[in-house]
Amino acid sequence: MTSAADSNQQVDGMPTDRARLDRRSFVAALLARIPDALVVTGLGSPTYDVASAGYRARNFYLWGAMGGSVPLGLGLALAQPDESVVVVTGDGEQLMGVGALGTVGAAAPANLTIVCLDNGHFGETGMQPSHTSLGTDLVAVAQGFGIAEAFAVTEADEVVRVADRVLARQGTTFVRVLIDPTEPPRTMPSRDGVNTKNAFRASLGLTTF
Amino acid sequence: MTSTAAPTTWQESVFEILKQGDVRQVAYVPDAGHSHLIRQAQADPEIADVVLTTEEEGVALVSGAWLGGQRAVLLMQSSGVGNCVNMFSLLKTCQLPFLTLVTMRGEFGEFNPWQIPMGSTVQSVMELMGITVFRADHADEVPGVVQAAFAQAFLANERVAVLLGQKLIGAKKWERD
What we know:
The complex is a heterodimer. By secondary structure, chain A is α/β, with parallel strands linked by helices. Chain A contains 9 helices and 8 strands. In chain A, helix 8 links the parallel strand 7 (about 150-155) and strand 8. Chain A is globular, with a radius of gyration of 16 Å. By secondary structure, chain B is α/β, with parallel strands linked by helices. Chain B has 9 helices and 6 strands, in the order H-E-H-E-H-E-H-H-E-H-H-E-H-E-H. Chain B has a 6-stranded parallel β-sheet with strand order 2-1-3-4-6-5, sandwiched between helices. The interface of A and B includes residues 63 and 72 of A.
């Protein structure tokens, strides 16, 4: 048996006495610096984190389709090369669609940044330890898939580096943000996918269909 | 290997329909039956060809393309349809347009029993997930079927699959020449 506390300590090579980052404040600080970016969220807590930072028409929230956030962001990034595209997802959602990092590595859109909020757990389903608590290093995985610009963030002020990468649009970027395995209150955006889709497209000057 | 086979007329017609319809992204897990179309996409500077590790990525990718204002098409083999099932919820929930061309295995003349469980249920699986299924088994019907599917997907905002039958493509040979 592996308790969550044990797994936290064995994870990541992180010193056990260092607090991980607060997910909500990191995401809010990032979004404040990239007001025009197109943002796609992976289901579960990343969707709530992005929603809690306030309404943006340029957010597309996944409430399901687990594993889909990165390939959806890739299609969007290829379609909108002059916009910054950011996928905000978690370790569980990323792991389900992990092969998509290979697809991203091959396509290499300069304007795509993947921000993976890694708490080492499946937070939505009872905080079971995920693979990133049990040996998987997502930065090494991303680099192995050909995403050269892949790095981990452990300090709050590194949000500036992440935002600069997003705004620069000078190469596919993967960021693993080591966050605290806590569950802040849910901030739920609309579950109406059609409404979200239409608002998102309208923000790009596109009609419904 | 059949990937270097000369293109037939129906294969040319499929690319023409996609090109005239301003498709800008072609996502695929390769299949010999799609090899001509993949080569055409790779050669066209206006089309991004995206090789996938698994087909459900393509469902999400073409959705993202459309959110960004581009038309995109997913190419896969029948075995890949099963990989996509949960990702199809994205299409239904968000009412996204969707066009996939599926080359069939596991039917007419199939030598490999492992292809049959998925190949024989592709149409049912697609329909259960809310996708309209068209089918072409003869070369002369391919252009009309693909054109109709294209129109329903991108003009009527439907989710449509075209199954390209094994009778059309030719059963894969068990023994090489």
